[in-house]
Amino acid sequence: MNTTVIERIRTRRPLIHHITNAVVMNFTANGLLAFGGSPIMANASEEVGEVTRVSNGLLLNIGTLTETQVKAMILAGRAANETGIPVVLDPVGVAATSYRSEVCERILGEVQPTLIKGNAGELAHLVGIEMETKGVDSTGSGNLEDIVRRVAEKYQTGAVCTGEKDVVWMDGEIKVNRSGHPLLSQITGSGCLLGSLVAAALAVDGKPLENVTAVLRLYGEAAEKAAAHKDVEGPGTFLPRFIDALAKESWGDDS
Amino acid sequence: MNTTVIERIRTRRPLIHHITNAVVMNFTANGLLAFGGSPIMANASEEVGEVTRVSNGLLLNIGTLTETQVKAMILAGRAANETGIPVVLDPVGVAATSYRSEVCERILGEVQPTLIKGNAGELAHLVGIEMETKGVDSTGSGNLEDIVRRVAEKYQTGAVCTGEKDVVWMDGEIKVNRSGHPLLSQITGSGCLLGSLVAAALAVDGKPLENVTAVLRLYGEAAEKAAAHKDVEGPGTFLPRFIDALAKESWGDDS
Amino acid sequence: MNTTVIERIRTRRPLIHHITNAVVMNFTANGLLAFGGSPIMANASEEVGEVTRVSNGLLLNIGTLTETQVKAMILAGRAANETGIPVVLDPVGVAATSYRSEVCERILGEVQPTLIKGNAGELAHLVGIEMETKGVDSTGSGNLEDIVRRVAEKYQTGAVCTGEKDVVWMDGEIKVNRSGHPLLSQITGSGCLLGSLVAAALAVDGKPLENVTAVLRLYGEAAEKAAAHKDVEGPGTFLPRFIDALAKESWGDDS
Questions:
Q1: Mutation test of the interface with chain C: which of A101, A188, A192, A229, choosing the one with the most C Cβ atoms within 10 A?
Q2: pLDDT tens sequence across C155-166
Q3: What is the pLDDT of residue C103?
Q4: Mean pLDDT throughout B53-77?
Q5: Which residues in chain C touch residue B26, judged by CB atoms under 8 angstroms apart?
Q6: Euclidean distance between CA atoms B47 and B25, whole angstroms
Q7: Model confidence over C61-81: pLDDT tens digits?
Q8: Which portions of this protein are annotated as coiled-coil regions (chains A, B, C) (predicted)?
Q9: Which of A156, B223, C19, C238 lies most in the core, judged by the most C-beta atoms within 10 Å?
Q10: Which of the four pLDDT bands, split at 50, 70 and 90, describes residue B131?
Q11: Alpha-carbon torsion (C172, C173, C176, C177), positive or negative
């Protein structure tokens, strides 16, 4: 392919429908806009199906889920499956409560995701491996390749495990990304925004594994560039520079 | 009048009650505070009437509407109509789904707005003109003056169409504003915040047409100033500088 | 004690469960992360008890309350009381509507807070003293020590009144803090974030009165440092520098 994934995203400007958590909505919308996508966020069951049908991708994030929102997620997910739109599920904090765990299984029983993206603790929980977690953050490590493969096989889906190193599994192939910066873990929603960008990666032409891995790499490189900016003195000043870095026009993207 | 609209806003600090979308609440509150107004955001049907009655203006924004919120909007809107408080309606994404379209008509059947503010696609949809839209963003153009006049006549209201040029229609008169910067379209909620500032413009003394047009001009000029700031390198760093620009004390405001 | 409260917070990284208002969720999460704590925000009645039981502190903030959220607050508050986890109640805008006032009494009838944090108008309202308020902001002054003492006695709780000077009452003792900067009042949620940090202060070892007062002082000093930063030109650029200041590793904290 003669174009890069970032070029294809910026040309198509894929419309991504988000049913996501209330903490990160603004940051996610600004981050996806900067990267080149187009965000829409609707929660009402009366309209989520229609919104999904005009979108190019769907992100489901359970970070502040309620029963009403779960109902909307299932309606949107089914609409996406019916129309062949990629679905990314981010099972935020699924290991934290039995309710999240139950809801996740309920969604996965009704909706076929294209990709499940989570940290090690979340993905491990989905396949019955216990890891140490704290709130919505995973603190453990383990055989990430094995966890990702088991999630992919259990749910017949692509899978991405994010962390110090990111592991991507799609269609029986695996890739690893090692770009990134620790400041990302000091701003809320950095993983949630990545889920949105992964949905954009799946919404444009190209091999999904390559697209997703390239976006993970770009995300980490943007964090590295922002953290190295001379005016960045902590997580507060990192955030706007990170958005700037996501918006940069001339990426060194060779995917 | 010997004072400018920005002076009157900063003297009165009008309290604007927002029933708005979840994506932009924080940005809207910070933007209105910077501009000189005072934000309050309440959604519970049990209290929205009481909140509106102590406010100086009401903003209704349907960006992430739910049935519960629509009920609250109608209660708040009626309270505003009863007490003579200006009401601004922002029909975000009204062309995107039949539900939004139906809800908008329902609100407009129960609440008399002082002003409807939207982009070209949203306003065109309200008066039955089809334009190209993408999610909540309008991508088409057209005879904006005609669209604005038709919205104003159909709903017996003021109307503002925002975009590269802004067109204001109030009480049979029309004004155009051409200040602004493309970076505004790269941050989420820039149109939503403008709705809040327009409500503030209607909440202070002065001719509504002049007040609203002056605020549109100031908003665009603040964006131009922020975009020209030497430390701004993209939408991330533009946002805080834009808030700073809205807060600047010595505006060149001659309205 | 040989460690400071900020050292203890950064060592333990207390997990604080927030049921808070939708306007400030993102800012609160980023602020608590910067300060050294770990935020979690869940609203569903199905899981708030379980989330609270694995947390080290609970913050209840009624800024955009709904009946559903009030139910969740009571469930979470009872879980916290049963497991001995500190509870901070922030009665945002309690004087603004009769509904907020009624809800506050309902929560306080079911949940024993460790500390109630509010501005002068909010705390005065809780003990039947009328003060001038505007929306969710208090504009009056008065005998703050008396108000705080009366709140503490009426609800058998610690109490903090925030404003130009902060007054803390815990276990029959009183302390005053005078650090701070007016720019704090120009960003939305600065009081709400402080409630979160106070919950973190109560979640670590040390005398509660000393911990809370130290955190109030650090918060004000961070605002002073940020406001004095050469690149800060208004509330927009103040905000990221304030988060940076909260994250600074080498605090001059002698508590």
A1: A188
A2: 999 999 999 999
A3: 97
A4: 97
A5: 23-24, 26-27, 188-189
A6: 18
A7: 999 999 999 999 999 999 999
A8: none
A9: C238
A10: confident
A11: negative
Total length of chain C: 255
CATH of C5-247, one of 3.30.450.40, 3.40.1190.20, 1.10.760.10, 3.30.379.10: 3.40.1190.20
Helix (H) or strand (E) holding A174: strand A173-177
Q: Would you give the distance in Å from CA B1 to the centre of its chain?
A: 24
CB A93 within 8 A of CB A131: no
Which residues have C-beta within 8 Å of that of residue C133, sequence separation ≥ 6? C95, C96, C121, C122, C125, C139, C140
pLDDT higher than 50, residue C186: yes
ipTM for this prediction: 0.94
Site of tokens 């029963």: A67
Question: What part of B 95-154 touches A (C-beta under 8 Å)?
Answer: 96-100, 134-137
User: B233 touching A, CB under 8 A?
Assistant: yes
A31 interfacial to chain C (CB closer than 8 Å): no
DSSP annotation of A86 reads -
In eight-state DSSP terms, residue A168 is: E
Q: Can you tell me which residue has the tokens 């949203």?
A: B122
List pLDDT tens digits, range B145-189: 999 999 999 999 999 999 999 999 999 999 999 999 999 999 999
- In contact, C112 and C156? CB cutoff 8 Å: yes
Rounded distance, CA C156 to CA C149, Å? Answer: 10
Per the prediction, chain C carries an average pLDDT of 94
Give the number of C-alpha atoms closer than 13 A to the C-alpha of residue C223, restricted to the C-beta side: 21
Q: What count of other Cβ atoms lies within 10 Å of the Cβ of residue C65? A: 26
B118 and B90 Cβ atoms separated by less than 8 Å: yes
SS3 B55: coil
Least Cα distance to C51 among C83, C28, C10, C96 occurs for C83
Closest CA to C73 of C42, C30, C33, C99: C42
CA angle A90, A92, A97 (to 5 degrees): 135
Mean pLDDT is lowest, of A126-140, C64-78, C87-101, for A126-140
Interface check C34 vs A, CB under 8 A: yes
Are the beta carbons of C5 and C212 closer than 8 angstroms? no
Among B129-138, B170-179, C63-72, C103-112, the range scoring the smallest mean pLDDT is B129-138
Assess contact for B88 and B202: CB atoms under 8 A: yes
